[in-house]
């Protein structure tokens, strides 16, 4: 196992954030539309959601966390939409760099190198967050920071698996057949990984420099490959990743409910002033 190096005093350690946003989000596009239109433009993260692009909602939540030194968005080298689709008002610590790669790991690795150029050190913390988790709240992010900042490894937001889990089987030689249940898997002790995920910059760079990243699906799995056990920090079901077409309607409903609640609280506050 790669041991975590000794760390300096906590008051000299900074917290940075990286949002990989170099993908197209093809699963959000109905298959027939992909065939008809080819590669969609703009990418999923720029689709409108209640008056703003999806990624703008994501970035506002991160920008509301005062402890984050800089918020870096990793773009595809040919991205032409970020500057027109993202309103940076009220987000002075937001930066964007066109250093994205073909995979998530490559994009995050490019983002970490960009942070190094901005002065980030190996002992600093880095939060990596999915652009498509636009319902994350500053409270959830602050909970993750509070629980991870004194941990020796770091951790991630996650949700205990609520549903019964089935292992599928498909009849041999008939890949077109409908899948059937092979067995039921116990959900005890199983969690759904979310983001942000928070690790030391140097440790995460080491993890993402491993020669075989074929089994790496998130930053935590890369850290696990080094022999570490990331901390699981309880999250909320609303912090889901907008992945499929129907997810946009659900995300919009959640945002509308939050706006309505905020309006009621504001009205109540004014009445009691």
Task: Write up this protein.
The chain is α/β, with parallel strands linked by helices. The chain has a single domain, classed as Spore Coat Polysaccharide Biosynthesis Protein SpsA, Chain A (Alpha-Beta Complex). It is 32% helix and 22% strand. It contains eight helices and eleven strands. The chain has helices spanning 31-37, 54-63, 82-85, 104-117, 138-148, 201-208, 219-225, 245-271; strands spanning 15-21, 48-49, 52-53, 68-75, 94-97, 125-128, 154-160, 165-169, 180-185, 191-200, 231-234. The strands form three sheets. It has a seven-stranded mixed beta sheet, sandwiched between helices. Strand 4, helix 3 (82-85) and strand 5 (94-97) form a beta-alpha-beta unit. The N and C termini lie far apart (58 Å). Residues 30-36 have low confidence and may be disordered.
Q: Label the CATH architecture.
A: Alpha-Beta Complex
Mean pLDDT: 90
Alpha carbon gap, first and last residue: 58 Å
Query: Helix tally?
Result: 8
Radius of gyration: 20 Å
Query: Main sheet, how many strands, which sense, barrel?
Result: 7 strands, mixed
At CATH level 3, the topology is: Spore Coat Polysaccharide Biosynthesis Protein SpsA, Chain A
Low-confidence stretches: 30-36
Structural class: alpha/beta
Instruction: Give the % helix.
Output: 25-40%
Bin the strand percentage: 15-25%
EC number: 2.7.7.60
Pathway: Isoprenoid biosynthesis; isopentenyl diphosphate biosynthesis via DXP pathway; isopentenyl diphosphate from 1-deoxy-D-xylulose 5-phosphate: step 2/6
GO molecular function: 2-C-methyl-D-erythritol 4-phosphate cytidylyltransferase activity
Keywords: Isoprene biosynthesis, Nucleotidyltransferase, Transferase
